[in-house]
Amino acid sequence: MKRKIAAAAALATVLTAAACSSSSSGSGTKSQALLSTDGKGKTVTVWLMQDAQKGWPDVVNAAVKQFKDETGAEVKIEWQNWPNYGTKLDTALLSGNAPDALELGNTQTGKYIASGAFVDLTSVKSKFDNSAQWLDSLAASGESADHSKTYAIPYYAGVRTVLYRKDLFAAAGVTSTPKTLDEFKTDLDKVKAKNANVPNFSALYLPGKNWYAALSFGAAYMSDPSKVIASSDGSKWTGTLTDPGFVKGIQTWDDFQKNYSVGGTTVDESDQDARMAKGNIAAIVANGWELSSVIDPKVGDPKLADKLGTFALPGATADSPAPAFLGGSDLAVPTHAANPGLGAEFLRIFTNTAQQTALAKFAIPNNKTLLSAYKAASPANEAAANAAGGKTWFIPNSPFWSQTSDEVALQTALSDIATGKDVTSELTTAQTTILTDINAG
C-alpha cells in the first residue's frame, strides 16, 4: 500500500510540474479544455485497445476520416493491449511522452484523475453527443470523487446478466423470466427439484468469490445503489458495506448460494462458463462474452447454442432489477499532451451519435439514448441493454483502490460468508480494510 501511495504522489508531482511548464505555450494544462479544429500540418496520436481493431475497425476508420476532413490533422492510432497497460501508461505520463488521447479501463481512471493526469473536460462536456444520457456508472468513473468535474469520456460498456439454460427452466415448468428475487427463488426451486438426480447440480451457480454478482444482490436492497462499497463527500470515504440494506442483500445472496449453488464457495467465477458447458449448471451471473464461451468448441459445448438465454438479475421489487456492475472503457486527454485540443476533438467525433450507433452492433454504447440500437443488433442484447440503462454500481473512484487488497478483502469476506461465517462481521472486516486503503491519501 505504501508503494502505491508513493507512486501516485510521484505521478502527481511530475504532472503538476509538466502542466506548469507548458502553460505559457498554451498546451498541456489541466485547466485547458477547449476543443480545437486547427490541425493543419499536425499529427494526433491516439492510444486505443486492440478490442476495437479486432471488433469494430470501421468505427475507428470513420472517426479518423471525419476528424481529418474537419481539422486537417493526421491521426496515428497506436494499438494497445490490456496486459501491463497501466505500467506503460505510467511511464508515458511520467516521461512526458503521452499521446494526445487515450483509452483506459474505467477501473483505472480514479488514480489518474486524482493525480492530475487528465485534462478537465467539464466545460466542453455538453459538446459531446448524448452526454446528458451517458450511462450512469460509466460516466461516474470519469469524474472527480465528488462528481463535480469530468475528466474522462465514456466509450463503451459491459454488464453482467443471468445466463441460463432455457431448456432446463422450461422442463421444470418455468415459462417466463422472473421479475423479483422472490420469483427467481420460486423458479430455482422448481429447476432444482427437476434435476435432483443430477450429480453436483447447481440451479444457479454462485461461486463465493464472485464479488461482482454478490454485490449486485447487496445493491438491490440499498436506497442508493450507486454508493455500493463506499460513499465520498469529496474529501473522505465512508463505508457502506454495513448499510442495513446492503447487509440484507448479502444475506439474500448467501441464501441463494447455499440453496442453489454447489461446489464453489472458495473459488471465483473465472471458469464458470466452462463449468456450465458440462451440463450440470442451469444459470450463472455472466458477462456478455461468456455466452460465446459456453458454446465455444474449444472449451464449451456448441450443442447448447440454441438452449441459452439471458435476463437481468431481478431485484427486490418488480420495477427495480438488481443494479449491475458496469464495466467498460473511458477515453481521456493527458494533461501534457502535445495537442490537447485536437485530442479532445478526436474523442468528441469518435463518440458522436454516428460512431456510437455503429459501435452498438458490437458492444453496449456509452449512452442510454442508443441502447435501442444495441437491442436491435441482436435479441440476445436486450437483457444487457436493460441492465446497463437501469441502476448500476461501480467501485469507489479513489486513486488508492487496490485490486490486490480491496478486491481480495471483498472476496475473502464473501467466501467466508459462503462457508458459514457471520455476514455482518465479515463485511465489517472488509470495510475496515477498504476504508484504510481508499482514505490513505
TrEMBL record:
Classification via Pfam families: SBP_bac_8 (PF13416)
SUPFAM superfamilies: Periplasmic binding protein-like II
Keyword Signal belongs to the record: yes
The UniProt record lists the keyword Nucleus: no
Superkingdom, taxonomy of origin: Bacteria
Family annotation (InterPro entries): Bact_solute-bd_prot1, SBP
Keywords: Signal
UniProt-listed Gene3D superfamilies: Periplasmic binding protein-like II (3.40.190.10)
Annotated signal peptide: 1-19
Protein name as it appears in the record: Extracellular solute-binding protein
